[in-house]
Amino acid sequence: MRACVIIPAKDEAATLPATLAALAAQTDVAGQPLPPDSFEVIVLANNCTDGTASAVRHFARQHPALAVHVARLRLAAPDAHVGRARRLLMDEACLRLLSLGHFNGIIASTDADTRVAPDWLAATQAEIAAGADAVGGRILTDATPVPTDQPVALGGPSGVRRTQLRDAAYQLWCARLEAQLDPQAADPWPRHHQHFGASLALTARAYRRVGGLPVVRYLEDEALCQQLRRHDLRLRHSPRVVVYTSARQYGRVEVGLSWQLREWAAQSVARSEPLVPCPQHLAALWRARRQLRAWWSRAAPFGVPGQGVAAALGLPEKQLARQVLASCTFGRLWDWVAEARATAGVAVPQVPLADALAWLRAPAAGQQATFFPARRAGTAGGAGR
Q1: Could you tell me the residue range of the domain that residue 223 belongs to?
Q2: What burial class does residue 276 get, using C-beta atoms within 10 Å of its C-beta: 0-12 exposed, 13-18 middle, 19+ buried?
């Protein structure tokens, strides 16, 4: 057993059979079925009021060759959230892999309303074998209609879908520009921008090194990836790893894809253009990050002063220089930069999505990405995404 797939589930009896069926149909990269003893599946049915656990047991009886486990648990109110559920699952998966001596065994997370691609595990394993410590998969929305018992937010599916596709284009253009301006050997282009619970995997070794999944009510996946970065672990955003998740607008978490879809629906009704971080300022930030990394690693020529980097980041040079010397990893240094900028009120302004896309699609976007003076928070209107 080289991988443990974990699935938190709350009232997912209707969606879990399809999720489990996709896992049971896993193949290698050549399309041959994966040995069923090469991975197992653990579902945590937490605080359920439906037949989630029964649905998993029924599936397990129909697929005896695949190790499918389910645990029922009622979490107390303060802990009844996806962060705690996913932490419990990942801890258990890590223990099981380490007990077998598989330090590079894979803890692979997906969601109960998600169908993984046939080669999801194999593609993830290939990225780990190539040197990644963690892998974020590409998450696409499922074309399957939302169940009729799901309430539908205002805005209509076409308006929401159009905004979703435009936002995806923005994110992918930004990922491409980031790879151009601050290339990373562990995460080269082509890549994407997603590292979320529907498709997020890491080795047991990496999980233990960062101290496990942070227990937060939502965005626990983002918090885990932040820990990976702080430790300078290699996070790959692989376009080869793909899942399909539901487009329901009322999910099981406070903040997630369903929440974002509702936000876009409301904006569609109000005929309001979504706001996104200004790509020109992001480009300047990524250029500065590349120079800062060179400074931190002592790879920069002595003729390259820190003053230009500090000015681009909107931070005092002496303060930044002290932190460069004090940081044991670049990830910790960059985390400090983000906190220092926030404390100083330095922010990337928000711009209309249409304007951001127009700039990103311009042929010379990368060449135009020169340093911009850092702006203080509040100089551009609108709430962030």
Answers
A1: 3-155+191-266
A2: buried
213 in any annotated domain? yes
pTM here is 0.87
Residues 7 and 32 placed together within one structural domain of the fold: yes
Same structural domain, 229 and 290? no
pLDDT of residue 381: 34
Domain final position from 220, 236, 266: 266
pLDDT, tens digit (0-9, with 9 covering 90-100), for 341-374:
999 999 999 999 999 999 999 976 655 543 333 3
199 and 247 housed in the same domain: yes
Amino acid at 309: V
What per-residue confidence (pLDDT) applies to 304?
Answer: 53
The answer to whether residues 51 and 128 belong to one domain is: yes
CA-CA-CA-CA torsion sign (106, 235, 15, 7): positive
Nearest CA-CA partner of 239 in 129, 105, 123, 67 = 123
Please list the ranges in the chain whose pLDDT falls under 50.
Answer: 146-155, 303, 369-385
Question: Domain total for the chain?
Answer: 2
Q: Give Cα 71 distance to the centre of its chain.
A: 26
Contact predicate 44/9, CB 8 Å: yes
Helix 16-24 and helix 52-62: axis angle, to 10°?
Answer: 30
The reply to whether 324 falls in a domain is: yes
Q: Is residue 354 part of a domain?
A: yes
C-alpha distances (whole Å) from 110 to each of 2, 19, 33, 199, 241 are 17, 9, 20, 5, 12
Pairing of strands 200-203, 350-352: unpaired
Segment 118-153, tens digit of pLDDT: 999 999 999 999 999 999 999 998 765 544 444 444
Q: Answer yes or no: is 28 within a domain.
A: yes
> Residue 273 in contact with residue 354, Cβ under 8 Å?
yes
DSSP string, 298-326: T-S-TTS-SHHHHHHHTS-HHHHHHHHHH
